[in-house]
Write a structure and sequence with these properties.
The complex is a heterodimer of chains A (635) and B (488). By secondary structure, chain A is mainly alpha-helical. Chain A has 26 helices and two strands. Chain A has a two-stranded antiparallel sheet. Chain A is globular and about 105 Å long. Chain A starts with a helix and ends with a helix. By secondary structure, chain B is an all-alpha fold. Chain B has a domain at 280-482. A two-stranded antiparallel ribbon of chain B has the order 1-2. In chain B, helix 3 (79-105) runs antiparallel to helix 4. The longest helix of chain B is centred in the middle third of the chain and has 32 residues, at 158-189. Chain B is globular and about 75 Å long. Classes of the chains: A mainly alpha (635), B mainly alpha (488). At the A-B interface, strand 1, helix 25 and helix 26 of A face helix 6, helix 8, helix 9 and helix 11 of B.
Chain lengths: 635, 488
């Protein structure tokens, strides 16, 4: 019955296509939410049954049919439920359901309501295919599917040129990563002989020597795919622009689910990555660098959604950092808690934007706390969670990542992570203070329309807030034999977590020290934010003036976009244009048209034979027979 | 003195003949029922025809694993028979669904229409199931006579009469060649039974006998006429164009499949694989058929005529599989025939739904902008066109893949190159339909679409199969391979 989980949203897509026009807005909303809600329930039931099995048998596959069979290659449409995909399926359907419900309120006044839910459900189908596939090929189908939906939803308001541009950018940048994914997949098939996870992972240790060039190349190529999908250096530039899409889309696709696909993929293929220490090191370093780099850009942004976008890039960096140091459990743990609080942050931001009649600039907000009590309270919870303050969810997962990094001996990576923590705490509280505290700086019009959001938006916020508080409790530190979440994932990562083993070798006192340190660092960031943006109104301006060079650099995002434009984009454009002007219009079109004319000429001649007279036809018939006999006589 | 053999009728296996019996009974029942006046506008005939076809298909399906040779080996029930009986029943059923509303709109709603359709289907089944040249000829005539009348069924229309007359005259002409061929083969081998002919040939050095070779060639000519291979194809555009469109759909799929079925059985059973001297001849016919069909289709503006030429071209692709020969070639041909039947039925099915009022001519330009006004029709037509053009992910693509694959395996590289080039040419006129559907502004009055539930069902079925076999071709290929197993 596993196939039912992705099939339900797909069924909703088809129904929406066929009869959506007659359902009306309410019907469309119910259909979309119902399908995803049902998928969540089916997934929940499947996971509960999985949990009832003995630990060693917690892998269920459901082969729907054999998609293709060519020679000794075969690809199945087959779904896999093991502890890892169980976590992913529950997060995707659970958070997805909440965001669907939220969207019925958020998009209530949009003209293209039906199209929105069509894309959103299609996305759910693709995402569930991605996380539940039992082979690389089907995963790639989902991988490309979510990319397509992301493109469609970023450019949802396609009449806005910036949205259309952002959609294109996301798609093209992702394609660069996808090339890596495909090449990686081909290498694995060429050497491993299968694209099925179980079969490939079983033979991998025998086929690939540890640290061999083949496996290093393959995993690095896969990781290139991950950097595209999960917005890591150097392919992160599309994600901030993706904020042109509707806010629920940012929450669902560009924070909670799709962008974590890269992390999931690395975790899923941990068997391969562990055979390639160089690749793992690369993952750790790229992750750590992205975490700090993106956080620093987030310090200076003024658009509420852009701050969150850079924060997402940074948090994804933490997840890769965890995978890179071998702590896959910690990476998936953070993936889950991040899905809760980041979805909440985006939805809260959406609620603010909705309340302020589409105002997104933090400089024209302020003092919203009493006017939007629910939004404020839930946003505060999420902000504390992402900053890493106990006992909120983010604290547990982030702390586990940092202590794993420390324990694995990657001290430099750990220091970068710690630097990220202080920046995260600072920019998140900067956002919180600029939006909710201090004096209102609203425009007159926004002030006039200011209202708390409808229940359909508030209820998902409240549920996510609860998850952001409680979600971390499945993984408290310093448990004998690992915490509950780690024990759940143990069958997947069994034997692989050498770093985790080292982790427990760290003495208790050191671990307490690490925890205290990361909390203190986070508190310092928060304190600084309060000091600069709330208590001393002039401080922000003074700081900006004192560090004007740095501020400009951060505000312009290190001019990376400009750099890409000046080099890659312009080069490709130029080459493409010259190809078009000369090669395409002259050579190709000329050849095609020329051939076309020739054949049309033939065609005109052949038509002449079709006289319409039976006598002619019989004549040709007889001539044909005569020709056959002549041919025989000659031999 | 040998004793007179006891009549075989008692030992007759009724299930093996079930399909044939059901169709004959259904056709006669329909005729008899005409004495009981039906309410005007009643769908009695159509419903009964569907029922008959369903029973017939069910009968053969129940006995699908049985192997029988009855009537002294004239009629065989084997995998090949089962495959084609099911295919013909399906083609017949889709055609009935397409005709349902169409015959009313065009004022040819008579029970006889359906009777003839059932008879023609029966003829096709007999052609595929016969293991004797005489019964093959009987089946062929049964099918052809039904089709001659059906083509001219719109008695009030001059072009329909003209089409029927041309088809009949040339059909009679071709039957003459076919019969002459049978006579020569009988003269050379002393039998009309395919099995005995094969036994005779295996023991005698007669393969080079001029009488035998000439007989084989004349037989080939007769079948080439039925499948519309060049240069025996000249009747096709005129007959297809003049016939009621539902009949065009039926004959373009059914008659072609029946012709190939008989040719395959004769070739593989009696002649022990396609005779070597046929190779160059079949190749030449295949090349001519593909090229003339596709190139002539390029300039057609009338949708029906364009599809007529396209169906000629498709016969060429199937001939490529026959040239490759052997079990693989035969199974690729079967696969292609099944796939071709449904995508072609679908394409003609849409033409039956279009029709400007009661006027028949549908130009490609009449489709302008239709894709947006009628999304289902647009989508279905697009799928059929890209499938006919052989573009994935459709069944037509898989059909070409298998055909060209066996041809490559048999070392027919030049033939494959010509085939692929022909596919490229064909894409031009197929995609012109899609371009009209989505990229051109309608001129003047928009084309009407006559919606009727049966036609929509037919459309959805053909659409689903065209897509399904494009994604999941393997099962059908396995069936085709199993079906030809008994022939060699």
């Amino acid at each position: 019955m596993l196939w039912l989980i992705p099939a339900l949203p797909l069924a909703a897509v088809l129904l929406n296509l066929l009869v959506g026009g007659r359902l009306g807005r309410k019907g469309v909303g119910w259909l979309a939410c119902g399908a995803v809600g049902l998928a969540f329930l089916v997934a929940l039931r499947a996971v509960l049954r999985l949990a009832a099995l003995p630990e060693a048998q917690r892998t269920v596959t459901d082969t729907v049919y054999t998609w293709m069979r060519v020679g000794d290659f075969s690809a199945d449409v087959s779904f896999l439920l093991d502890p890892l995909s169980a976590v992913m399926a529950l997060v995707v359907t659970g958070v997805g359901f909440l965001i669907h419900v939220y969207s019925t309120g958020y998009m209530a006044h949009d003209a293209s309501y039906r199209r929105f839910f069509l894309y959103l459900n299609l996305f759910m189908f693709a995402m569930l295919t991605l996380v539940m596939a039992d082979n690389f090929l089907l995963m790639f189908v989902g991988w490309e599917g979510v990319g397509l939906c992301s493109y469609l939803l970023i450019g949802f308001w396609y009449t806005r040129p910036s949205a259309a541009e952002a959609g294109k950018k996301a798609f093209i940048v992702n394609r660069i990563g996808d090339v890596g994914f495909i090449l990686g997949m081909l290498i694995l098939f060429a050497w491993g002989g299968s694209l099925n996870y179980a079969r490939l992972f079983a033979v991998a240790p025998h086929v690939f020597a540890v640290g061999s060039t083949v496996i290093t190349t393959a995993t690095l190529l896969l990781f290139l795919g991950a950097t595209g999908k999960s917005a890591q250096l150097p392919l992160y530039t599309w994600l901030p622009d993706a904020m042109e899409g509707p806010t629920p889309v940012s929450a669902l696709i560009h924070a909670a689910t799709m962008v974590t696909a890269g992390v999931y993929m690395v975790a899923r293929t941990h068997v391969l990555f562990q055979l390639a220490p160089v690749s793992l090191q690369t993952v750790a370093w790229i992750g750590a660098a992205t975490a700090v780099f993106a956080a620093s850009i987030g310090l200076a942004q003024n658009d509420i959604k852009r701050v969150l976008a850079y924060s997402t890039v940074s948090q994804l960096g933490y997840m890769f950092m965890a995978c890179g140091v071998g702590a896959f459990t910690a990476g998936i743990f953070h993936l889950m808690t991040h899905a809760f609080f980041k979805a909440l942050l985006f939805l809260g931001a959406g609620s603010v934007i909705h309340a302020l009649s589409d105002e997104q600039d933090l400089r024209r907000m302020g003092g919203l706390a009493p006017r939007l009590p629910w939004t404020h309270a839930t946003m505060l919870v999420a902000t504390l969670a992402i900053a890493g303050i106990p006992p909120f969810a983010g604290f547990f997962s982030k702390d586990e990542i940092l202590s794993s990094a420390f324990a694995s001996g990657n001290t430099a990576v750990w220091i970068l992570g710690l630097a990220g923590v202080v920046m995260t705490a600072f920019y998140m509280f900067r956002l919180y203070i600029l939006a909710f505290r201090g004096q209102p700086r609203l425009s007159h019009e926004a002030e006039h329309h200011l209202h708390e959001s409808p229940p359909s938006m508030i209820v998902p916020l409240a549920v996510l807030a609860a998850l952001s508080v409680l979600g971390g409790l499945v993984g408290p530190p310093m448990q004998e034999g690992g915490h509950a979440f780690a024990r759940w994932l143990a069958p997947v990562f069994a034997g692989g977590e050498h770093a985790a083993a080292a982790h427990h070798a760290v003495p208790m006192a050191v671990e307490w020290g690490l925890i205290a340190l990361s909390v203190v660092v986070a508190l310092a960031g928060i304190g600084l934010a309060f000091r600069v943006y709330l208590q001393d109104p002039g401080a922000a301006t003074r700081l900006r003036e004192r560090l004007s060079g740095l501020h400009r650099t951060l505000l312009h995002k290190y001019w990376v976009d400009e750099l890409y434009d000046a080099t890659a984009v312009r080069f490709v454009h130029g080459t493409a244009r010259s190809f078009w002007r000369f090669w395409d219009t002259k050579v190709v079109d000329g050849a095609v048209n020329g051939v076309g004319y020739v054949f049309e000429g033939f065609s005109a001649v052949l038509r002449l034979f079709q006289t319409g007279f039976v006598g002619t036809y019989a004549l040709f018939f007889t001539l044909g027979v005569a020709a056959l006999f002549l041919h025989l006589l000659r031999h | 003195m040998t004793p007179v053999p006891a009549p075989q009728l008692i030992a007759l296996d009724w299930w093996a003949l079930g399909a044939v019996i059901a169709l004959s009974a259904g056709a006669m029942l329909l005729l008899l029922l005409e004495f009981v006046p039906a309410k005007p506008g009643s769908s009695r005939a159509a419903v009964l025809s569907l029922l008959t076809l369903a029973i017939s298909a069910a009968a053969v399906f129940v006995a699908r694993d049985a192997r029988r040779s009855i009537f002294d080996g004239m009629f065989v029930h084997d995998g090949f028979t089962v495959f084609f009986t099911l295919l013909f029943c399906a083609i017949g059923a889709v055609s009935v669904l397409l005709s349902w509303d169409y015959v009313r709109r065009t004022g040819i709603h008579h029970a006889e229409y359906y009777v003839l359709l059932l008879c023609a289907t029966l003829g096709m089944i007999v052609m595929a199931a016969s293991n004797d040249l005489i019964t093959i000829f009987v089946g062929l005539e049964l099918m052809s006579l039904g089709l001659y009348v059906l083509v001219g069924f719109r008695r009030a229309h001059l072009e329909s009469n003209e089409a029927a007359l041309k088809y009949f005259l040339l059909g009679a002409f071709a039957s003459g060649f076919l019969l002459y061929g049978i006579a020569l083969l009988y003269g050379a081998t002393g039998t009309t039974s395919l099995t005995r002919m094969a036994a005779f040939l295996s023991e005698s050095p007669l393969r080079g006998n001029p009488m035998f070779v000439a007989g084989g060639l004349l037989l080939l000519t007769g079948f080439a006429f039925k499948v519309a291979a060049v240069p025996f194809h000249m009747w096709t555009p005129d007959a297809y164009d003049g016939a009621p469109t539902s009949v065009t759909a039926f004959m373009s799929a059914g008659a072609k499949a029946a012709g190939f079925a008989a040719l395959l059985r004769v070739g593989l059973t009696a002649l022990g694989g396609m005779p070597a001297e046929w190779g160059p001849i079949l190749s030449a016919i295949a090349i001519l058929t593909m090229t003339v069909g596709n190139v002539t289709a390029l300039l057609q503006t009338n949708l029906k005529r364009m599809l007529a030429y396209s169906s000629i071209a498709h016969a060429g692709y199937i001939l490529v599989a026959l040239v490759a020969g052997g079990r693989d070639g035969a199974s690729a041909a079967l696969f292609y025939l099944a796939v071709y039947s449904f995508m072609n039925l679908g394409a003609f099915g849409i033409v039956t739904m279009l029709g400007r009022g009661r006027e028949e001519r549908v130009l490609v330009s009449d489709l302008a902008g239709l894709g947006f006004r009628q999304p289902l029709v647009g989508l279905a037509m697009t799928v059929f066109m890209i499938s006919l053009g052989g573009i994935p992910p459709t069944a037509g693509f898989m059909g070409k893949v298998y055909v060209f694959k066996v041809a490559l395996g048999a070392g027919l590289v030049p033939l494959v190159i010509i085939g692929v080039l022909n596919s490229v040419v064909s894409v031009f006129y197929y995609l012109r339909v899609t371009v009209a559907l989505y990229m051109q502004e309608p001129q003047g009055e928009p084309t009407e679409v006559s919606w009727a539930a049966p036609a929509v069902v037919a459309l959805l079925v053909t659409l689903a199969l065209t897509l399904w076999w494009g994604i999941q071709a393997h099962d059908l290929l396995l069936e085709a391979q199993r079906s030809v197993m008994g022939l060699l």
